[in-house]
Structures are given as C-alpha cells and as structure tokens.
Amino acid sequence: MGQERGNQPGIANGASSIDAELDHEEHERQRRLLTLVAYRVGGVVLIGAFAGALAAFLRFGLGPVEPIAPDPDAPIQWWHSTFYGSAALLMIASGRVAQVGRVRAGAVLLLVTIDALLIIQALISEAAVIFALGLGVPVLITTILLDVRATVLHSVFAAMAGIALIINEAVGIERFWSAIVMLLTLLILIVIVSYLREGDLVGLVRLRRIERADAVRIQSELALARRVQLAMLPDAMPEIDGADTAAFSEPAAEASGDFYDAFLLPREGRPPLLALAVCDVAGHGIASALVMSATRASLRSAASRLESPAAVLSEVNDTLASSIPRELFVTASYGVFDPDEGTFSHASAGHPHPLLWRPSTGDVVELENAGLPLGLVAGIDYRNLETPLEPGAIVSVYSDGIVEALNPARQMYGFETNAERFGDACHPGASADGVLTSMLDSVRGFVEDVPFDDDVTVVVLSRSPSRTETNIP
User: Fold this and answer.
1) How far apart are CA 79 and CA 467, in angstroms?
2) Chain mean position to CA 117
3) pLDDT beyond 90 at 454
4) Do the beta carbons of residue 91 and residue 99 sit within 8 Å?
5) What's this model's pTM, rounded to 2 decimal places?
6) Could you list the residue range(s) of the whole structural domain that residue 418 is in?
C-alpha cells in the first residue's frame, strides 16, 4: 500500500501534464484555423472592395463603362467600396490578433465584423432576406472556432437580427414566413452540428488522453528497461595481465537488443581466462531487452561450467530455442583469451566475423567461424576457432549496427570500410581504448547527424606483453 500511495502524485502530475498539453494543442488548433479563416475571408472581401472601387473609378472617372458595368444604375459608390475595404482590413486584423495568441479576442473581432457587414449590407440593399440568411455563415464559423455555448449565443443573436431585417424589408406574408422558417431551420441545424462536433471532440480528447497516458507509461517502462540493461553491462572491463580491453554500446532505441559482456573465468593454479561476448537480439525494444537479459544469464551460467566457447553457445542455444519466439533469434560471438598461451578461442552464432590486426605484417584478417543464430533450432553444434595472438595483436568484435550505419545519402558504412578504419587505427603500442575511439569517430563522421538505425556495440582486445614476458632478460 505504501508503494501505491507513493505512485499517486506521479500519476496525478502525469494526468495534469497531459491535460495541459491537450489544452495547448486545442488552443493552437483554434489559433491556426482562425488565422486561416480571417486571412482568407478578409482577402476575398478586400478583392471585392478593390473591384468595386475600380468599377466606380471607371464609371465616374472615365466615362462610358457599358462593356465593364452593363447596368449604369448599379449602386457602386466610393463609400460602398471604402466600407467593404474597412471590413476586410478588420477581418485581416482579427487574424493577426489570433496569430499572436489571443484567439477569443480575434474570433470576436472577426464575427462582429462579418455580422456588421451583413446587417449593414441588408439595410442598404433590396435583398435583406438574402443577407439575413447569410447570418448563418458567421454562426457556422463559430462552430469551427468556439464552443457550443458561443454557437448558441451567436445563433440567438443571428435569429433576432435576421428576423428584424426580414420584418424591416416588409415583404409579403408568404415570403416573410418562408424566410423566417429557412433562417431558423438553418440556425438550428448549425447548432445541432455544433453539439455533435462538441461530443466528437470530447470523445477524441478522452481517447487522446488515454493514448498519451499509455505513451507516458510505455516511455517510463522503456526508460526503466534501459536502466536495467545498463546495470547488466560491466561497470568496468576486467583487468588481466597480458590484455588491454575497451568496450562501447549505444542503443538505437530506449531498450537495446545489443549487449556485451566481459568477465574472468578462474582456474586453479593458473591465471584466469578472459571471456568476451557480443550478442545482438533481432530488433530492439522491450521484447529484445527481455531476450537479451535471458541470453546474458544463460551465457554466464554456461561459461562458469564449460571451458569451450562452442559448448557454451550450444547450451545457450538449447535454452533459448525452448523459451523464446523464433523471430527473436540472437546472433553471438563468444571468445576466451588465454594469457598464458596467448590464444583467442572463439565460437560464432551468425555474428559478424571478428577482426584481427597482426603487428608483424600490418594485415587485417577476419576470424571466420560460422554458425546458426541462437534460439532458432535446438541441438546445434558450434565449433571453436583458436587463433594465436602475438604481442601487440588487436581483436575487434562488433555488432552489425556499425557496418549497417547509413549516411545522409543512405549509403552503408560497410564491412570493408570498417576493416580499413580498424587497420588504420591499429599500430604498435596502440591501446584498446584508442583503437575503439578511432573506430567510433570514423563511423560517426560517416553518418554525420543521421541517428543510428540499429544498436552499435564494439569490444576491442589488445594483447600486451605480460609482466612475466616483460621481465624476461
């Protein structure tokens, strides 16, 4: 119970944060819509005002205008164009007001301007009924920009103003009632649409709140999974006489499918062996992280009892094949360095071949050893490949994320480039950390600002002369 109470403030804070984010998004939606409507409507009215002013100029300033204005008695006056132009500027100003964040003030200015434009035009024209029905336009705009309450209030105002305009026109009884019914029907339909839209918005907000809460929860779980994974990685590479090691791992997502491990295998009366493993679970995410944890535990358990890398991978494969889905297979490279013999014995399960740099020749070779990935089929026999390491030799074990890294042109870094850059980084006396840093700098320079598509893991082992060898006269 104590733990549950401890979690409640965090949940409440998360919910309030989601509500604030949704409110902000709704405010931004209204701001964008109002700005768009105000600028578009204002622009159209401004064009009409300019056309009216041009026609008036042609009529009163240049004489005959029959080709342009066939009706010489049309009420085109300078004040009329000025009125429309002023209304257009007010509409555009309302868009500017909304653009700076004052959405409600901008909406009020826009709606008042359109209402005034329609009412005044109805009073000075012989088509009052048409402009009275036109009052439904700003009411419709209200349903887009504001809530149901504002829509109802505006509908009541439009109904009263429209009825007053129809009465003022003194039309016949049949036309009068027809116009009243049309106006009220239009406004009622708009209010119904507003209510339906408000209900949809409430449902949408509820759904988005659930989605956001799930996203926050999943993000929190992924972050926790990542912390658990980081805790499983070695705090520091084990120190062993005759070897220098360095390692790096960077996930492409919160939870990685890559991992490396390095640990000592004690032997009676002899220096311990150094075990190095690099594994890559198919995909990345929580499922891959779970398989990674199971693989690490199984590998450490098998390595504590079995000396042969091939036998270790065989046992891990049998364990995974009976407990994980086949689509979550694991590629692995597991090797053991013997400081007494100066050998590196390793087995591979579908993993990229380790690279070896020989100081005597300066050559880079692949330690080729093939085998099926772990977890696909039980009963697989893997084989050991034992390689002598002369003093100064350097081995690099890596995951495919480094060779499959893409640059902005979608070109792949590639195995050949990786081997070349590894060879360039190696030289007599080179440290494992220096080689690792050089390899990572090379691939990062290649991808530039493009994030890695896959997890990247690299482990470097350099055989250094042991203290015994160093002390030989």
Assistant:
1) 102
2) 46
3) no
4) no
5) 0.60
6) 235-470
